[in-house]
Recover the amino acids of this structure.
């Protein structure tokens, strides 16, 4: 037996059980009236009368439902369907009560009252015609209510599907945007480094150029290991940074000093992949690169409430802009865009002149461990 057939069988069983329950419920009321009125008829005649009536309606229910589907009263134009069902509801009880009269006469129920077919039909019309009209409209009303509910559920499910699809598209678009921004950083950094190597070659500094190429190879190998990741732990980001700084130290030799201090509790904090490198590159280019003397880059990371605060300082000549702030070119612009895509207004990157000279870049982003961040992205997917 197929699932569809099983559902139909269970539907008929449930429908029969419902009508039987209604019949027994009305029989209990009839028995109370019988006791009050001291009716001499035996109880089984009352039970038979009620059960014949409800079981006939059980057989008529599919026909009423079919008429409801054929002429739905909740579809425009409403007046046509309502008038049709109003007419049917006035005629239908006559058919029902006529059949009930034949059956009850055959079962010899209430013989003193139902002495003939005409007498039985007249008696049933008096006590049951209006109730039959209400029964017809009750079945029709239940069908309409179920139809409204089903259409409401379909619209709700469709709205949920559209909302899910929209969120998936938004996530895919955000990931594509992030990947595009990230891919812009890689060639930007690579071209800058290769340009530096080219300058060393032209200056006939072959040993320095070879050393820089070797360290660049190590850095690229490390970066490619996480090329698919949008976020990495701060500890991993510091590994990239130290490899990058080792390349720059080949170029600047003793002129570049670096001090990195990160609190242990933020080493597993999530931040965008390759987010610090363009900031440090900016500090070296516009700080150490513009000074003829040795310079220092200071990098600190600590937790402030529910955020991670990373500061990158240089002791160079400071910003040239009149208002003391700068966008910092493609590297910093992309970093700001990636922070906005990943964290919204909860993250920021500010570059300004330090109080004691030089420039300080401050990155603030919400504190999340890398595993928590990956779980959040997975549930959004």
């Amino acid at each position: 037996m197929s699932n569809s057939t099983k559902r139909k069988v269970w539907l008929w069983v449930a429908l029969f059980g419902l009508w039987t329950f209604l019949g027994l419920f009305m029989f209990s009321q009839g028995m109370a009236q019988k006791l009050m009125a001291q009716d001499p008829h035996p109880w089984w005649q009352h039970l038979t009368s009620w059960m014949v009536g409800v079981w006939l309606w059980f057989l008529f229910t599919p026909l009423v439902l079919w008429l409801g589907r054929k002429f739905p009263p909740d579809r425009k134009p409403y007046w046509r369907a309502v008038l049709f069902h109003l007419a049917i509801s006035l005629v239908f009880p006559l058919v029902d009560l006529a059949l009930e009269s034949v059956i009850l006469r055959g079962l010899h129920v209430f013989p003193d009252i139902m002495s003939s077919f005409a007498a039985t039909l007249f008696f049933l019309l008096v006590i049951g015609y209006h109730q039959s009209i209400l029964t017809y409209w009750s079945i029709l009303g239940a069908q309409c209510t179920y139809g409204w509910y089903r259409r409401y559920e379909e619209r709700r499910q469709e709205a949920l599907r559209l909302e899910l699809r929209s969120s998936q598209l938004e996530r895919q678009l955000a990931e594509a945007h992030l990947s595009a921004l990230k891919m812009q950083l890689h060639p930007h950094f690579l071209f800058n480094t290769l340009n530096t190597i080219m300058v060393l070659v032209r200056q006939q500094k072959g040993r320095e150029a070879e050393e820089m190429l070797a360290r660049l190879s190590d850095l690229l190998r490390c970066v490619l290991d996480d090329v698919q990741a949008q976020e990495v732990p701060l500890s991993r980001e510091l590994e990239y940074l130290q490899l990058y700084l080792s390349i720059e130290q080949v170029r600047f030799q003793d002129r570049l000093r670096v001090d990195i201090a990160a609190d242990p509790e933020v080493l597993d904090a999530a931040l965008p992949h390759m987010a610090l490198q363009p900031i440090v590159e900016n500090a070296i280019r516009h700080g150490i690169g513009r000074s003829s003397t040795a310079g220092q880059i200071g990098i600190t990371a600590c937790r402030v409430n529910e955020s991670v605060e990373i500061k990158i300082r240089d002791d160079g000549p400071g910003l040239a802009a009149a208002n003391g702030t700068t966008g910092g070119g493609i590297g910093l612009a992309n970093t700001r865009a990636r922070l906005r895509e990943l964290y919204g207004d909860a993250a920021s990157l500010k570059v300004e002149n330090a109080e004691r000279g030089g420039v300080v870049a401050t990155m603030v982003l919400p504190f999340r461990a890398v595993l928590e961040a990956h779980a959040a992205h997975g549930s959004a997917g």
About this structure: The chain has two domains: 3-162, 205-380. The chain has a mean pLDDT of 80. The CA atoms of residues 175 and 230 lie 8 Å apart.
